[in-house]
Structure formats: C-alpha cells, structure tokens
Amino acid sequence: MKLEDIRNFIIEHADEKKALFDRKIIQSKKKMYGVKTSDLKKIAKLAAKEEISFPRHESYEMDVIRGLSYAYSKHSLEEKFLFFEQFMKEEDNWAAVDILSSSFSIKANRFSDTYIYSKKNILCREEEFLVRFSYLLFLHNFKKKEYMDTIFTLIREDDRYYVMMAEAWLLSSFFLLDAEKVYQKMEELDKKNPLIKNTVRKIFDSYRVSEEQKNKLRSWYDENRTL
Predict the structure, then answer these.
(1) What is the DSSP string of 53-99?
(2) Whole domain around residue 150: which residue ranges?
(3) Would you call 150 helix, strand, or coil by DSSP?
C-alpha cells in the first residue's frame, strides 16, 4: 500500500452529505470528505503494516488514518506516547481525539507507566486536545475499580471545555462501578465548579443508571449546589 492508494480510498469513500454534517459538529479547519469512521479504521489497519510517510493536515481523514495506523502498529508504548504527544499538540478537533484515544489499546500491566507519563508530561500542558486525549486513554483502557483512586488523583479543576468534558465522562463512567467514590470526588471540588454539573448531567443521561440512583444523585446535587 502506498500513500496514493490511501488518497484514492478517501476519494472513493467520500460522502458530501456526511461531510457537510461533520463540518458543522466537528468544526475542524481541515478539508473533510465525510468518510465513515469504520472505513478509516479499515484502511488504517492495512496502512499499519507498511512504512508510509504521511503528510500532515492534508485532510481530516488523512490525519485520522495517520493516527490510527500508528495506534495499530507494533511500535512500543513509549514510541506511541511520543507520537501522540506531538500529534495532539497539532490537533484542532475533538472527533479525531476521541477516535484515536478509543483505538489506542494499552495492556493492563502498563497502567503505572501510563499514569506516570500522563501526570509528568501531559496533564500539566496547555494544549487542550492533548490533555483530553490523555484522560480518554484512561477511560478506554483502565475503567476498573482497582484503578479508580489513582485515576481520580489526576482530575483537577480545569475550565477548558474539552478537558472538563473528558473529566466528566471519566467520572460518570466510574459512577456505575462505585458511585460512592464518585460522590467523594465531587465533594472535594469547589461546589461552583461546572465539572460537577456536567458529571451529574452525563450520569442522568445514562440509561444504565437506575431511577433510584438518579433520584439520590438529584437530591445530593440540589443540596450541594445551594451550599
């Protein structure tokens, strides 16, 4: 497979109607062809077996394929960390971040390495999408009770929208595993912090949370937001 094959694939799978929709909700400055994510993953798995010199920012789809192919590749975890650190510094949209974070598989025995690298090199950074990417790696790879306490130490009060929503996503997902620990974490935050409101909203939106749990959460939220 060559770069020209990927360009042809993108053109052949382009959907202008989807591209118009994607431009509205993704709001990337890159050219967008409206290729389905499933098709991008399909071609990326083939590209991962080759050494292809990808252009940067030729299109949204090309960048996603570039990222996916590296995520699927046999490069070491450390090499992937460095690649995506640079990749996300240049990213301009949430959709690529979410697709790539969900496709970057990390083995359970590398939790400590992921935690240390993220805490030391990523979560203190100014690049909003890079920080979001790091939080979502924990969501997609380490959503287990045994990791909750450690992951929660990484959550901080951050008013950048895409970072805050990633934190809310993390907290709301862990609510199903151990609601009490999520309550404890929210109680540590400033009561006016919008992270609490967004976490609660995400929990309410979940069909997997029982009405009993939602009623308890509603009472907790009403009580705490008036303090």
Answers:
(1) ---SSS-HHHHHHHHHHHHHSS--HHHHHHHHHHHHHS---HHHHHH
(2) 143-227
(3) helix
Q: What is the average pLDDT across 95-115?
A: 97
Dist. CA 136–CA 140, nearest whole Å: 6
Residue 215 inside a domain? The answer is yes
pLDDT tens column, 155-206: 988 999 999 999 999 999 999 999 999 999 999 988 888 999 999 999 999 9
Residue 198 inside a domain? The answer is: yes
For the packed helices 179-188 and 145-152, what is the interaxial angle rounded to 10 degrees? 0
Tally the domains of the chain: 1
- CA 76 to CA 60: how far, in whole Å? 25
H/E stretch holding 198: helix 194-205
Q: Torsion angle, CA of 184/185/186/189, rounded to 10 degrees?
A: 120
Cα dihedral 20, 21, 22, 28 sign: positive
Answer whether residue 41 is part of any domain.
Answer: no
The answer to whether the beta carbons of residues 114 and 142 sit under 8 Å apart is yes
The H helix count followed by the E strand count for the chain is 13, 0
